[in-house]
């Protein structure tokens, strides 16, 4: 896979080098991966301004007694266009698979399911399934017999995948296909990483590179809850980039 550069998905309103230097000196934020970093953690020697981001909606359709073998996660923008998603399913017989796919079709969710019979499979970005996705997702929630509000809103920022090492990208690709990981979602051009819970740090801090770890901390300091590593996104000044190709 080769990286490409294109239109800017966000415009940074400050240089990130000051924060990168701050972290490199060991003055890390007092609370990381908690959704909102305390303002006191920002060094008073420079003015901290956030990058412009976008709102991303997260839908979760959980398994239930009626559908014990299915779990769907969907990320969409505020116009309800599908950005990324994943599903998990476990079937033991061919007729179970056919029955499940028929039920999904009746729910209007068949576009979210593709690929062969795997435990976890990414869903390709594209348009949502109807003109009224909120009503359709609500109906799907009812059909799945799921209680409670199923929609969350994340403040997201896009950053170039050029800031990832080869090892980082290989690891994120594995996590995106791991049925037990709901913090990393894959898409054709990169990855989404949720930053809104403490376990995100616990899951990632021992395996990602120091360079990637600093970017995640930077995003949390800027009060983002979701980071998009994307091939077409802009690079951030102050953080190193890496040039490599997966054959």
Give an overview in words:
With 247 residues, the chain is of the alpha+beta class. It folds into two domains: 17-54 and 155-230, no CATH class; 56-151, no CATH class. It contains six helices and eight strands, in the order H-E-E-E-H-E-H-E-H-E-E-H-H-E. It has helices at 17-24, 94-107, 133-143, 166-176, 198-204, 210-221; strands at residues 54-61, 70-77, 82-89, 120-123, 151-160, 184-187, 190-194, 226-230. It has an eight-stranded mixed sheet with strand order 4-3-2-1-5-8-7-6, covered by helices on one side. Strand 6 and strand 7 form a beta hairpin. Residues 157-244 form the DUF5983 domain. Pfam families: DUF5983. It comes from Marinobacter salarius.
What is the succession of H and E elements? HEEEHEHEHEEHHE
Cα end-to-end separation? 6 Å
Mean pLDDT reading = 59
Overall shape: it is globular
Rg, please? 19 Å
Low-confidence stretches: 1-51, 111-130
- The main sheet orders its strands as 4-3-2-1-5-8-7-6
Strand content range = 15-25%
- Whole-number tally of structural domains: 2
Number-wise, the strands total 8
Portion of residues in helices?
Answer: 25-40%
Largest sheet composition: 8 strands, mixed
Number of DSSP helical runs = 6
Structural class label:
alpha+beta
Protein name: DUF5983 domain-containing protein
Organism: Marinobacter salarius
Keywords: Plasmid
Pfam family, one: DUF5983
């Amino acid at each position: 896979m080769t990286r490409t550069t294109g239109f800017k998905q966000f415009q940074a309103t400050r240089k990130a080098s000051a924060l990168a230097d701050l972290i490199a000196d060991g003055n890390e934020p007092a609370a990381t991966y908690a959704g909102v970093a305390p303002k006191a953690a920002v060094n008073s020697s420079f003015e901290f301004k956030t990058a412009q981001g976008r709102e991303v909606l997260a839908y979760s359709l959980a398994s239930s007694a009626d559908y014990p073998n299915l779990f769907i996660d969907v990320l969409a923008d505020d116009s309800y266009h599908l950005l990324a998603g994943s599903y998990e399913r476990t079937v033991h017989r061919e007729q179970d698979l056919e029955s499940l796919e028929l039920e999904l079709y009746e729910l209007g969710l068949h576009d979210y399911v593709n690929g062969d019979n795997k435990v976890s499979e990414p869903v390709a970005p594209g348009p949502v399934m109807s003109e009224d996705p909120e009503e359709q997702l609500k109906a799907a929630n009812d059909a799945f017999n799921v209680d409670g509000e199923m929609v969350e809103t994340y403040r997201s920022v896009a950053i170039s995948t050029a800031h990832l090492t080869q090892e980082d990208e290989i690891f994120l690709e594995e996590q995106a296909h791991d049925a037990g990981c709901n913090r990393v979602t894959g898409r054709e051009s990169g990855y989404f990483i949720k930053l809104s819970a403490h376990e995100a740090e616990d899951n990632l801090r021992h395996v990602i590179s120091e360079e990637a770890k600093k970017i995640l901390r930077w995003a949390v300091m800027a009060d983002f809850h979701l980071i998009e590593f994307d091939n077409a996104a802009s690079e951030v000044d102050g953080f190193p980039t890496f040039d490599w190709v997966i054959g």
